[in-house]
Predict the structure of Pili assembly chaperone N-terminal domain-containing protein.
Amino acid sequence: MHVALRLLAIVAGIATALGTASAAAAQSVNTMVIWPIDPVIAYKERAAALWLENPGKKPLLMQVRIFGWNQDGGEDHFTEQKEVTGTPPLIRIEPGQRQLVRLTRLVMPEPGRERAYRVIVDEIPLPDAPSDGVTPSGSAKPKQAGAAIQFRMRYSVPLYVYGEGLGHKPDKSQAIARSQMEWRVIQANGKPVLEIRNLAPVHGKINSVSVRHADGSTSKLNPVVGHILAGSVMRWTIDKPLSDTAVIEASVNGAAPAVLAHWSH
């Protein structure tokens, strides 16, 4: 699957006419294509491929970094690591060209364990695209009229590495997660919070979550989506509390919705 990452360049200018100042802005869009969006390094494999393609009209300079990924307290956490590398780490991609990034495992996960990482791909402004006034958070503060401002865009790709015992085809292993997720609702800061824990040895990607009502109808719980890593718990604030007798259905890893067990203790 291809995913388009839009890299925005905003040019701001100030013109003066008849003694009255007016502002003018122009916007150009370049596109980055990244695939696959869910790379894995299966047991007995040393590396996986990640492709970056520039179908635009201007060259792109991209930086690739890989961080360790874990979940604690219902939140994502990223750490420096030396278990997986991405090469080359800095890439210039000319218009119409694509570049292979090799994701190489240096350390084998423990048997029966899945390790999670995030591949971070950042655009770095080229010398002919001034970045004056762009703060680390990405907000723009032009220092002078007519300055060209290019926002540095970021794309985050999940990467999973499998230890012995999880098989050569991780897609099949992911099916385990569908049957080992449980839910409950707690109170946090006076609001109902849905917790879902994943007891499986592999991650599960929540595509959607719905409540099945007594009349057979269902209503979606928004915004309950995202990855839940192996052995982890994620949380989402919801509009209304749910009773312990509620029936929760979730689509996990793109599969048809299935009922999740209630987390009773």
